Amino acid sequence: MQIARINDYRDYTNTDSEIVTKIIAGETGLYEVLLRRNNQLLFRVVRSYLTNHEDIQDVMQNTYLKAYVKLHQFKHKSKFSTWLIRIGINEALARLKQKGKLVSLKEDGDLDIDKQVIRLFDHQKHNPERKVILEETKRLLEKAIDNLDTKYRNVYIMRLVEDMSVAEIAECLKITPSNVKVRLHRAKTKLKENLYEMIPKSELFEFGANNCDTIVTKVYSNLEFV
């Protein structure tokens, strides 16, 4: 399928819904605007199901191609991104099934919701040493998120990384808003557990060789007065 290209997608201020209407009317080049606007979101959602880079790329491509063919089915009742993600999730699940990897996505019982949220800092606002620390924090967090079960990982990504609403997530995953909250709570709880398990306990609050040398030197320098 050959889709026309545009000069600069940033020149377009129309909403996704308006762009869909224009594409159906014949302005096919505008489809690139939808791709570029939704690439990050779609990648993160698909990445919450799959970890292989080639699989992720294939699923994203298939998602966009199927969405293009089915644009006339978009009802404009919800966000285009929500509709697109639904297609992406189906493609990701199909890829997992193809590989023989079954994913348990059954609903969970209700729980109280933990309001704590893990947030990453903007790296541009910190000095080089701080950036190194934050990069390592980011690496550990991504690894801990990867270790979550799929049904918790995708909710965590959509809600806390992409800031999608509970209602939008419920629509994408075809579960109740209450269940979205339950999964989010469990995702955060398990994420904390994963992070804790990654850190060698012997290194927590470690005094360190330099500190040890310093305190020994200070003590001995005062022993002559005792």
How do you describe this structure in short?
The protein has nine helices and no strands. It has 226 residues and is mainly alpha-helical.
The CATH topology of the largest domain: Rna Polymerase Sigma Factor, Chain: A
Structural class: mainly alpha
Which residue ranges are poorly predicted, with pLDDT under 50 across at least 5 consecutive positions? 107-123
What is the number of helices? 9
Q: What amount of the residues lies in strands?
A: under 5%
What's the overall average pLDDT, rounded? Answer: 79
Main beta-sheet annotation: none
How does CATH name the architecture of the largest domain? Orthogonal Bundle
Shape, per Cα inertia axes? elongated
Distance between the termini: 87 Å
